[in-house]
Design brief:
The structure holds two protein chains of two kinds. Chain A is built from five helices and five strands, in the order ββαβββαααα. Chain A is α+β, with helices and mostly antiparallel strands. In chain A, a hairpin with a 2-residue loop joins strand 3 and strand 4. Chain A is globular. The model of chain A has no long low-confidence stretch (mean pLDDT 95). Helix content of chain B is 28%, strand content 24%. In chain B, strand 2 and strand 3 form a beta hairpin. The chains are: A alpha+beta, B alpha+beta.
């Protein structure tokens, strides 16, 4: 079977690569496009480490067909920082010690990005709900929730 | 049908590292031509922070800024032998090995500086800011960078050090049965408050109050982070996690993260920690290892809290709603406070 050309927007820029037949978005992003920021955790949509945004909505890239992003806007953790300047969420994760091994962090960051894009003033429960599909083994979640709330406060302060 | 409150206590002595044929760690330290220092370890940092703590220990021992130290881990092809990252041994074993390696490298650094300054090495000291100077005469100084360049390009000298820390195998005395399996103990005590629903058997952890004695908190934020996360994992082991829920019957085992139960962000229990410091004489700057100890006392404390709430003594983990309900039924009803 032939490969399928997929043209899309990745973190605000035009992108194109060939997708293997039936390949999932996570494999496509990591192998064909070269964006290693979404992580392979469970490969069956239950851990959240591979979370990316498609047209602003969080999706589990390991169970999303690569071809379905044709013409759409994909955002990954690799696109959060502006050169050396980190995103507010990334700064807050550092400030609150919200990562230990760091494997869940890209997925957490994208789930939180989707939340803050829609809701600039989330409650603690809103944050808990937003990352409810993302598993973390190290932190006990509280530092992550604290970091996302701090980022939301910083976002409001800058606006 | 009611929800019962319960409180459980547990405390532990936690041995740092292990003793099965000896427990060595090695470290190598060497300078680059621009006066930075590299620490090479074979043990990995899997989130516990040995890269950060090892960097602090090396910088402190060398007497140079922490920004000038780089810690390279996780390549057993190129690094010196290490038993590994487990048993809460990283800070204690690797930290001690780093101190020895960095001390040797520091001695060579001072020798090289002494040659340049035409003084005796024993008269030199470091200011921790990248300078080496004659004691009490800060104006007679040379930078670490100039020293490294002089050593490598003029003197043909390496600024490097080797370090090993070994807790040797402790044999058992044939007459008394005595042995010394560990050299260093950390300690913890905690109180856990729970609510147990005697209709559903569900246990909810309301709060944790703990005291952890870690020798010396070499990096207080990392210690706190590890204690918070590790205690959460203890709750997870106490109430949720098992690969064999009906052992030895292998059926109904979890297949994936959908069926392997773990608490999520919705089950966060407030955790108030007191960190106590009793520096250990054989530990690097007194620091023991808070690794596994953060999770261990949580399990018996939860079991005691469940007993205190409904009078059910669970002797296998995890303490599932099913076990709690079976216990309540066997007792003929909930026994708040453990009363018969």
């Amino acid at each position: 079977m032939s490969k399928t050309p997929v043209t899309f927007r990745l973190n605000g820029e035009d992108a194109a690569a060939f997708a293997d037949p039936g390949s999932n978005l996570l494999d496509f992003l990591r192998r064909a496009v070269g964006d290693l920021s979404p992580k392979y955790g469970c490969g069956q949509g239950t851990c959240g480490a591979c979370t990316v945004l498609i047209d602003g909505e969080p999706h589990l890239s390991c169970i999303t067909l690569a071809e379905t992003v044709t013409g759409r806007e994909v955002r990954t953790a690799g696109g959060l920082a502006n050169g050396p300047i980190l995103d507010r969420l990334q700064e807050a994760f550092i400030d609150k010690f919200a990562a230990q091994c760091g494997y869940c962090t890209p997925g957490m960051l994208m789930a939180a990005t989707a939340l803050l894009d829609k809701n600039a003033n989330p409650s603690r429960q809103d944050v808990i709900d937003a990352i409810g599909g993302n598993i973390c083994r190290c932190t006990g979640y509280e530092p992550i929730v604290d970091a996302i709330l701090e980022a939301s406060r910083n976002t409001r302060g800058a606006a | 049908m009611a929800v019962h409150k319960g409180r459980g206590f547990a405390c532990i002595n936690y041995p740092i590292g292990m003793n099965l044929g000896g427990d060595p760690s090695q470290a190598l330290v060497h300078s680059t031509p621009d006066g930075k220092f590299k620490v090479t370890l074979s043990s990995i940092d899997l989130g516990q922070g040995i890269k950060s703590v090892g960097r602090q220990i090396a910088a402190e021992t060398l007497g140079i800024p922490i920004e000038d130290v780089y810690v390279d881990t996780a390549d057993s092809d190129t690094g010196p032998h290490d038993m590994g990252s487990f048993a809460s041994r990283g800070t204690h074993r690797m930290g001690n090995a780093i101190i020895r390696a960095a001390s040797e490298a520091r001695a060579q650094m001072l020798e090289a500086a002494a040659e340049k300054l035409e003084v005796d090495a024993s008269d030199l000291t470091t200011d921790g800011k990248g300078n080496i100077h004659v004691k009490n005469v800060p104006s007679r100084s040379i930078t670490v960078e100039e020293t490294a360049q002089a050593a490598q390009f003029e003197q043909g000298r390496t600024l490097a050090g080797r370090g090993i820390f070994l807790v040797p195998l402790s044999g058992v005395d044939a007459d008394t049965g005595e042995m010394t399996p560990v050299s260093c103990f950390a300690h913890a005590a905690l109180i856990i408050d729970v609510e147990v629903d005697d209709e559903t058997g569900e246990v909810e952890v309301l709060q944790i109050n703990s005291a952890y004695e870690v020798g010396r908190a070499l990096n207080p934020k990392l210690v706190e982070q590890q204690l918070i996360g590790g205690a959460w994992m203890g709750v997870s082991h106490a109430l949720y996690e098992t690969t064999e829920p009906y052992y030895p019957d292998r059926s109904h085992g979890p297949q994936d993260f959908n069926t392997y139960l773990m608490p999520g962000p919705g089950e966060i229990a407030p955790h108030h920690i007191s960190i106590l410091e009793r520096p250990a004489p054989d530990a690097p700057f007194g620091g023991k290892g808070p690794g596994e100890m953060c999770a261990n006392p949580v399990l018996p404390a939860v079991a005691n809290a469940v007993y205190n709430a409904v009078g059910v003594r669970c002797d296998s983990l995890p303490i599932t709603p099913e076990k709690v309900l079976r216990g309540i039924r066997a007792n003929g009803g909930a026994r708040p406070g453990g009363r018969a």
